[in-house]
Amino acid sequence: MVKEEDSIVWVDVDGERRICTENLSKGISVYGERLIKVKGVEYRVWDPFRSKLAAAIIKGLKHLPIKYGSKVLYLGASTGTTASHVSDIVGPSGIVFCVESASRVARELIVRVAAHRTNIIPIIEDARIPTAYFAVTGKVDVVYCDIAQPDQTEIAISNCKMYLKKGGYLMLVIKTRSIDVTKEPKDVINKEITKLQSAGFDVKQVLNLQPFDKDHAIASACYS
Ligand SMILES: C[S@@+](CC[C@H](N)C(=O)[O-])C[C@H]1O[C@@H](n2cnc3c(N)ncnc32)[C@H](O)[C@@H]1O
Q: Does 148 sit in the ligand 1 pocket, CB within 6 Å?
């Protein structure tokens, strides 16, 4: 279970244990999430129904490789709901490269999130073409991939080959219905895990995200 770390805390909110991140952008709520103060520090309540990473932590993720100061390549950032919490966690000394191919969505990411956070670098590109990310220099500690495409695992692997450091982690959201609606979700997940292992990943944990997300799993894998 992920324990309280630098920027993740569990707080009692209205009698319920909730996961929160320290707000890097004081006073600003990104997607309507509650802002709360604990001992003078402002936190954002992280909604597991809106963010698969929060769901994974609540479902018992053993090791969160995203830490204070981490360099993260985030594929499929959308409007920045999860990316904003990743930005909170890595803090001002970390960096989150946010790749998003839909320009209208990316505009919201820029206006609502990146404009208030210096550690978010939006990259409006197709994640199938990792050579196009001129903003990314050097290797990253973590690749987080949530793009809901049939070839999402192949896209994640090609990005890792180019940008993930040895010993770094891939966190891959597996949306089974995007890959094959005709197959049993567990068979789809097993097939994607085999692809990761064949590409040199040591798969540490696979979590089913129900009841927060139907037909979704998240795999955490170390790159060797
Ligand atoms: C499920 S949403 C991501 C939600 C987001 N990760 C969150 O938790 O806040 C998937 C996103 O991936 C983007 N996407 C899909 N295919 C892509 C590609 N080939 N390259 C980059 N982004 C892509 C979509 O436009 C969409 O915004």
A: yes
Task: Please tell me the distance from the alpha carbon of residue 199 to that of residue 178, in angstroms, as a whole number.
Answer: 21
Long-range contacts of 181-186 (CB under 8 A, 24+ apart): 185/215, 185/217
Amino acid at 162: M
Cβ(61)–Cβ(207) below 8 Å: yes
Query: Which tens digit of pLDDT belongs to each residue from 25-72?
Result: 999 999 999 999 999 999 999 999 999 999 999 999 999 999 999 999
Displacement of CA 17 from its chain's centroid (Å)? 21
Question: Six-digit token pair at 115?
Answer: 């404009």
127 lines ligand 1 (CB under 6 A): yes
Q: Is 126 touching ligand 1 by the criterion CB < 6 Å?
A: yes
pTM: 0.96
Counting atoms of ligand 1 from 1, which one is nearest the CA of 50? 8
Q: In angstroms, what CA-CA distances link 92 with 67, 70, 77?
A: 12, 10, 19
Tens-place pLDDT, residues 188-210: 899 999 999 999 999 999 999 99
